[in-house]
Design brief:
Layout lengths: L2 H22 L9 E7 L13 H11 L4 E7 L19 H8 L7 E5 L2 H4 L13 H17 L3 E5 L10 H20 L3 E3 L1 H12 L15 H21 L1
Parallel strand pairs: 1-2, 1-3, 3-4, 4-5
Helix pairs in contact: 2-8, 5-6
Length: 244
C-alpha cells in the first residue's frame, strides 16, 4: 500500500470516529439545521431596554453546544392566542390569525409557545372579563399543539411570567389560573414545559430579590429573566436531542 492510500485510510477513520462521537453526544451533524419558531407576544418580541431576548440567547447556547439552528422570532406585542374577532383591543394579527404564516410555514422541528398575559388581561374591571376566557385559551393552545404535531414538529410550552408589585394582586391571581392551565395541558399532551413562573419565584427566593428585579416595567421580562428562560428551554431541547 502506498503512502497516499495510507493517508486516505487514516483520514477516513478519523472522519468516521468524529461522526460517531457527534452521534453519541446527540449533536446535529453538519448540514442539519434545527429550525425553531418562538411564538408569542411582547415577552418574546425584541424590546427596547433588553439586550437580547430569549430566542437570541437560545440560538447562542445551542450553537455553543454544537447544534446548528435557525430561530424565527414570531413574537408580536399585544398578541393573544385567539383571533382579532375574539378581542380587538390591540389591532394586530393574533395567535390564530397568524399561526399558519408565522409558524407552520417555516416547517419547524420545535415551536416554543409563550402566551398568557394578554389573554388573561382585564381591560374593564366592572365586567371582570379577560380578553380571552380561560377555556378559549386552553383550546387555542391545544389547537397549536395538535397542528404542529400533524406538521411533523413538536412543542415547548412556557407559562406566563408573574407580574410585579405595581399591579393589583387580583391580576396576579387571575394570571395564575392561566399558568396552571398551561401546566396541565403540557402534562396531558406530553409536551415539553418550562414553568417560567416557577423559575422566577425560585430566583427571587434564592437571591433574596423581588419579582421586579426580573422585570422591565412590572410586566415584561428583563435580560435576567430572558437568560433564565433561554437556559431552561435549551436544557429541555438538548435533553431531547441527546435522547433521540
Amino acid at each position: 500500500m502506498n503512502d497516499r492510500c495510507r493517508i486516505f485510510r487514516f483520514a477516513s477513520m478519523v472522519l468516521l470516529l468524529a461522526f460517531g462521537c457527534l452521534k453519541s453526544q446527540g449533536a446535529v451533524v453538519e448540514g442539519d439545521t434545527l429550525v425553531i419558531v418562538a411564538f408569542g407576544n411582547s415577552t418574546t418580541a425584541p424590546r427596547a431596554g433588553v439586550e437580547a431576548v430569549y430566542p437570541e440567547r437560545l440560538h447562542r447556547i445551542l450553537v455553543d453546544r454544537g447544534v446548528p439552528n435557525r430561530i424565527v422570532n414570531a413574537g408580536l406585542g399585544g398578541s393573544h392566542t385567539g383571533s382579532i374577532t375574539d378581542n380587538a383591543r390591540h389591532q394586530v394579527a393574533h395567535g390564530r390569525d397568524r399561526f399558519k404564516e408565522a409558524v407552520l410555514a417555516h416547517q419547524p422541528k420545535w415551536v416554543i409557545i409563550w402566551f398568557g398575559i394578554n389573554d388573561a388581561w382585564v381591560d374593564d374591571e366592572t365586567t371582570g372579563q379577560p380578553r380571552i376566557p380561560l377555556a378559549d385559551y386552553k383550546q387555542n393552545l391545544i389547537f397549536f399543539i395538535q397542528s404542529i404535531r400533524q406538521a411533523g414538529g413538536d412543542v415547548v410550552l412556557l407559562t406566563p411570567n408573574p407580574l410585579g408589585a405595581r399591579y393589583e394582586p387580583w391580576r396576579l391571581n387571575r394570571l395564575q389560573r392561566y399558568r396552571k392551565a398551561t401546566i396541565r395541558i403540557a402534562r396531558t399532551y406530553h409536551t415539553q414545559l418550562v414553568d417560567v413562573w416557577g423559575l422566577c419565584t425560585d430566583y427571587v427566593r434564592q437571591h433574596r430579590a423581588t419579582m421586579d428585579n426580573l422585570l422591565l416595567d412590572g410586566m415584561h421580562p428583563n435580560d435576567s429573566m430572558h437568560k433564565l428562560t433561554a437556559e431552561a428551554v435549551a436544557d429541555r431541547l438538548l435533553t431531547k436531542i441527546d435522547n433521540d
